Design the sequence.
């Protein structure tokens, strides 16, 4: 049995959510530059948007099938290929408590929420903000 590929359809159980269209690959800027995939690197640690494929029967959250949800980093399963009606989708499972936000329109996936990092050359968070005037770490 091949558990990485399913023919037909699947249904979410409990309060789980099945999502598609999560972005893990390379990106292309408006100017045509190709930015390689950052998944698995420090820069790749951020929440990601996914399109709701199905909701479990106990999930009473306000988003619906077809809406977009923002999922906390790393709180999704590996993808399973779903072949249905001559269409192949990469479906992942998400727990309802890992959903940070939702939108009924596709968000700008070029926007990286939570992409703060410090590689000693480029810091997006000022470390001095965590030190009080006496030089000690702020509580």
Sequence:
């Amino acid at each position: 049995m091949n558990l990485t590929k399913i023919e037909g359809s699947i249904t979410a159980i409990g309060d789980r959510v099945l999502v598609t269209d999560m972005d893990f690959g390379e990106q292309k800027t408006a100017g045509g530059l190709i930015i390689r995939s950052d998944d698995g690197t420090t820069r790749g640690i951020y929440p990601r948007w996914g399109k709701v494929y199905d909701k479990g029967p106990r999930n009473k959250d306000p988003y619906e099938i077809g809406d977009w949800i923002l999922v906390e980093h790393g709180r999704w399963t590996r993808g399973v290929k779903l072949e249905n009606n001559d269409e192949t989708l990469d479906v992942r499972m998400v727990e309802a408590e890992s959903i940070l936000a939702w939108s009924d329109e596709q968000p700008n996936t070029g926007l990286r929420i939570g992409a703060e990092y410090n590689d000693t050359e480029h810091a997006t968070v000022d470390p001095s903000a965590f030190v009080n005037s006496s030089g000690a770490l702020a509580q």
